[in-house]
Design goal:
The protein is mostly helical. Helices cover 79% and strands 0% of the residues. The two termini are 35 Å apart.
Amino acid sequence: LDQTDYDRIQWIPNKLFHCFYLTTPEDRLCISRCILSCVVPVTLLPKAKVDRLITVFSILDDNAIKALNEILRNRKRLRQHVQDLISIHCDTELKEEEKKKLLLTKTIMINTCLP
């Protein structure tokens, strides 16, 4: 893209991130998926992801950066809860009743992370 084309489309990521704050969970889920699959695809190599994130951060306004940070924090929190859930499930030292309680608690926590 040349500079004029780039200037014409530079507003799109900001608007996309601003939509993250819409009220319905479906909107948040849609925006999160769009951002994670298009803006910073998971299929990129780690170095390419970092380069893409730096580029995206450099063109975003403050509100869009807050939305991106919130999305990344939610993803990290969700990963940690899933990791904990798996470790509880694989733990052989826990009694069955204890395990059920912990699994239920962790499942509820995962539910709160999902839009």
